[in-house]
Write a structure and sequence with these properties.
The protein has 200 residues and is mainly α. It is built from 11 helices and no strands.
Length: 200
Amino acid sequence: MSRARSTRKLTRIQREKRRAIFEAALDVFSEQGLRGATLEQIATASGLSKQNIIYYFDGKEAIYSELLGGLLETWIAPLRELSAEGEPLEEILTYMRRKLEMSRSMPRESRLFATEILRGAPLLDEILHDGLRKLVDEKAQVIAAWAAAGRIAPIDPHHLIFSVWSMTQHYADFDLQVCAVLGEARSAGRFGEAEAFLTT
């Protein structure tokens, strides 16, 4: 649980320190996972003392929980924007491009989310089974309606969404592998190549 007092507005310095803690924790958690991370590592990475970290948060679990809560909302935002009123192909491609851009610009966040899923998602279980499932079902109905109307080819909408996730997030979660396989010459353009391929 965060020690930040919800009834008291944080000062500018307190907000800056919390941002520094979150930024450092994101680095540490995305590399070490929750179990491997320590408050000492977060303190060192943030440039703050361990006591300063403890002033704001009850422990590393509290930092991790807040990070994940904000991350999930960011992660699903592009799916929320998929519109039934739009042109189906453009809506699907826009969703894919937004997810790929998130992998390019937010690789640590992607790895943090993937790590949480791999450890059984104990902190996200309720959100995944309620909020995320409801949103995916809603957007799957939109895609299914497009297919039923002949606007796109018949396709399983849930597996289409899963495919977008796997094809885009791979470039964040397995970036080291992607770069090793492509080699130095092609690695710099990997996201542009990926977008062209996935669009086709």
